Amino acid sequence: MKNGTDSFLSFGHWPSAGSFGFNTDILATNPINLSVVLGVLIFFGKGVLNDLLDNRKQRILSTIRNSEELRRGAIEQLERARTRLRKVEIEADEYRMNGYSEIEREKENLINATCDTLERLENYKNETLHFEQQRAINQVRQRVFQQALQGALGTLNSCLNSELHFRTIRANIGILGAMEEITD
User: Is Thylakoid a UniProt keyword of this protein (predicted)?
Assistant: First the structure.
């Protein structure tokens, strides 16, 4: 058995005269094995690798196209939003200006209404004052007239004696009788 193992191990030491054998020298066989494996992989895996790379390239290009479309769509939306914002700002300015002019109109109307109310109140005050003055004048006249009448009655009562009093009464009765005959 030792001979069989020795002969197996000795294959690596045979001269390379066209015979086939195993080389057990790891350092010498690794680069050869790697190059053979790489050659086989490149030869047979080239198509698969190309297909994988083409698929990856197509996905990347598709993603780029989708990104460009999304970018264009976002730019369009941004422009529409900017246009709408400008319109809204213009409308807001118009509302603001209309609001200011409406406020000014309301303010002017309120001032005019207040002036009218003040003028009416002033007229009412003047009328009230005139009425109160007339009432006060009438009260003073009535008091003066009452005092004058009381004074005149007092003077008449003190000056009249009973005979003069009876004559005055008879004369007044006569006048009333004459008036009564005229009316009948």
Answer: yes
